[in-house]
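Entry for the shared binder. Reason: the reviewer on the internal report wants the predicted structure included alongside the sequence.
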Amino acid sequence: MLDYPFWVNNFDRVKDHKLKYPLSSKIFEYPTSFWYGERNGKEMADLDYSIERLLKRTSPGLPILVLYNMPNRDIGQYSKGGAKTRDSYLYFIESFANGIKDKSPIVIYEPDSLPHTTLMQKKDALWRMDLMKNGLDVLTSSCRALVYVDIGHSNWLEPKDAGKLLNTVCNDKTRGFAVNVSNYRTTKESMEWALRVCEYRPQDHFVIDTSRNGNGPHGNEWCNPPGRALGHPPTCNTGEEKCDAFLWIKIPGESDGKGNGGPKAGKFWGEMAEQLVNNYIKNGINTLWK
């Protein structure tokens, strides 16, 4: 079983929301992730220094890091953006790895990027998979991070197809794959699906994003569906040898995009945050509160 030294943020990420939405602060009493990628068309400067500084701050604990900078990210949807060119992307990965060095944080690699290739023209899909493979080679050869490649969720791909996609980009230093990132499929469903993916990737371990799956999905709605709840808090005690951890990869309370009344993707939405917390309480799952 993976023994991960989870780190809880020691700075206030919701100071602008606590007066009106006080329960939103409960989310940040537990480990949440840090996402890295181009925002508003601006490349990240001094990324290696930024990562190194964060790891010094969290020591001896470790944060959960998310790489989200693939060119044509989110294939032009709500979270569009990413690196402009192949070279700038590989430089970004190299800088990221140089900041990590001999530390071993969990790194979630490019949410949606691999599953999205199934929606792309063949030429574009092959270009992306080649870039992902090269990016993973740089990342895994330059640092000791525990790298999990995002492969979507149980309502997106058949396990065999997921396995084939992972085979196109992963190397033998990749720890495994991540499922349900930023989605709402139940932990049970996600676990069963991921174990079936492992039939085609027997060397892999996996992690499940449980950040907002306490009430499961709302049909096929992925953009700020109503009535959702926080899921199981981050832990390595998953009850399954292949499943390394339940994680809050998507930061609970951050919008999926301008759907169902939400603000732009990635912006914290206090109203939704409180709904996630309140519905978690209604479920009678009290392990989140001390």
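Summary line for the report: The chain has one domain: 22-284.
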